[in-house]
Amino acid sequence: MTELRSAVSVFDPDLIPVPALAYKLDFSDHAGEVPLHVHRKGQLILALRGAVTCRAGNELWVVPPNCGVWIPGDVPHSARATANACLNYLFVAPGAADLPATCCTLSISPMIREMIDRLARDCCAYPPDSHAARLARVMLDELADMPRERFNLPISNHPKIKLMADALTLDPADRTTLKDWARHVAMSERSLARLIVQETGLTFGRWRQQLHLVVALRELASGEAVQNVAGALGYESVNAFITMFKKALGSTPAQYFAQNRDV
After folding, report:
1. Structural contact between residues 201 and 154, judged by C-beta atoms closer than 8 angstroms
2. Where in this chain does the record put each HTH araC/xylS-type domain (predicted)?
3. N or C: which terminal CB in the chain sees fewer CB atoms within 10 Å?
4. What are phi and psi of 12, to 5 degrees?
5. How open is the CA angle 66-246-172, to the nearest 5 degrees?
6. What are the residues whose beta carbons fall under 8 Å from the beta carbon of 32, sequence distance 6 or more?
7. Number of neighbours of residue 118 by Cβ within 10 angstroms
8. 48 phi, psi to nearest 5 deg
9. DSSP 8-state class, residue 109
10. Pair 50, 27: CB distance under 8 Å
């Protein structure tokens, strides 16, 4: 069986001297694990189908259907895509657009999605007076106005928080209590609670719920059934999972993905 190539081995955005360029990547042709790497250009990751999670800036990010994860230039990052994932990457040269200086999730309008898709079909090294160049300028102006969303999990470099994050990412159904975690990492429960807030900005309960939301978005986008996702996250019932999802995003999983297929 032929080993699939890593996505970073087929394309180097820094070799193409344009303000913005787009590249479409189908993960049926590439390895799902994208190793830690860095490039000078900033990167916006959009999911056309399937799902991808990224690690960047001490946080875990998920790319939901109507959003993109923005990673500024020179920020080391890695990613894991589902087998059915097809992505559009938009690379932006330093200073070409007024985009955030830190990693974030940006809401992406249907117009911007179409413009990025069109740019991905054009020649990467387009002339500065070409239609592609004009399209890129308008797209970057519009992109700078897109609002931020919160589809990330702070994971911290603190060894004790990292240990917990790695364990919960590996087994998100783990319902170990804060008291038991404190015993496991040799801290008092109160000290661990303070450390989690200090390192992540969230209480333990909110932090674990945010992990569940990140995992749920990734798995649902990959085509997994709601019942299976609820079970994998350790919810006692599908209704309890749907309640969590609706409280976080304002709609049920079925409504959320139906709305975002229609935009």
Report:
1. yes
2. 162-259
3. N
4. -120, 105
5. 85
6. 80, 81, 82, 83, 85
7. 15
8. -85, -35
9. -
10. yes
Q: Which DSSP state fits 247?
A: H
Q: What is the pLDDT of residues 60-101, one digit of tens each?
A: 888 876 789 999 999 999 988 877 888 899 999 999 999 999
Partnered with residue 61 across adjacent β-strands are: 54, 152
DSSP assignment letter at 65? T
Instruction: Determine the average pLDDT of the residues in 134-140.
Output: 94
Q: Assess contact for 206 and 195: CB atoms under 8 A.
A: no
What is the distance in angstroms between the CA of the first residue and the CA of the last residue of the chain? 39
Token code pair at residue 53: 């999670």
What is the enclosing helix (H) or strand (E) of 162? helix 159-170
Distance between CA 231 and CA 100 in Å, rounded? 37
Please give the angle made by the CA atoms of 217, 136 and 60, to the nearest 5 degrees: 25
> What would you report as the CA-atom Rg of the chain, rounded to the nearest whole angstrom?
19
Written as six digits, the tokens of 165 are: 């994050």
Q: Is the dihedral of CA 192, 167, 76, 85 positive or negative?
A: negative
**pTM assigned to the model:** 0.79
Which amino acid would we find at residue 226?
V
**Long-range residue pairs from 117-125, CB within 8 A, at least 24 positions apart, any chain:** 117/22, 117/24, 117/48, 117/88, 119/20, 119/21, 119/22, 119/90, 120/22, 120/23, 120/24, 120/88, 121/24, 124/16, 124/18, 124/21, 124/23, 125/16, 125/17, 125/18
Per the document, the length of the chain is 263
The two three-digit tokens of residue 214, written as one number: 């990140």
